[in-house]
Amino acid sequence: MDLRLNDKTAFVSGSTRGIGFAIARALLGEGAAVVINGRSDTGVEDALRRLRTEFPDARVSGLVADFGDPAQVQNLLGALDEVDILVNNVGLFGLARFEDISDDEWRRYFDVNVMSGVRLSRHVLGGMIARNWGRVIFVGSESGVNIPADMLHYGATKAAMLALGNGLAKLTRGTDVTVNTILGGPTYSDGVADTVTQIAQAQAVAPEETKAAIIGANRTTLLQRFIEPVEIAQLALYLASPLSSATNGAAVRADGGVLTAMV
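The structure assignment produced for this chain is given below.
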């Protein structure tokens, strides 16, 4: 299927690994030009090398910025040209007891997970509306709907992201610009894999055993396995394309059936 992305340019935040990398890779596979982003020169250079090895003719570049540092964000915005597709993917993830989460940690999570999308969307949305075409995609989580007790700060930011995407969509009324949010389920991203490995080491068991135990404890998953990053990327690819023109202001689920509500 031709997703008609050959003449489009995309920026994907937090895209040197995990879901962001999978989305960047999928967009390149459809012929789009892609700007990736990571926190370090080394991370961005390594991701660019991998992408250029797989796609020798790819139009791909990178911008380094830590979205927890406002000065670095301003530098990135100054270097970011017009884009047709914005994928707000960057985010922090971690388990923590509510009583152990400091005010500074709450601020850090909101600055990276929510304000990154605010700042990037504010930078590109006006141009999209003026050109009468664009796609803004938030990579959210089912945790923004069903807030986990052991990740309250994470879930709260994902709920805020969902609200932000819905509100921004209302600014696109009557245009060919859309804003949508993906509600991803438990995904075996690099960050989750790192967490699983740490838990496994602490418990002196094999990582695969820990991985199976974690997903096995989820009583509502219909998939009964972790989602792979590429599965989230395929939905992002559709939402980025002109074929998704009738989907706007939506929270589109790729949660493996974890959420039990019908909508």
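Interim note for the steering committee: The chain has a mean pLDDT of 95. The chain has nine helices and seven strands.
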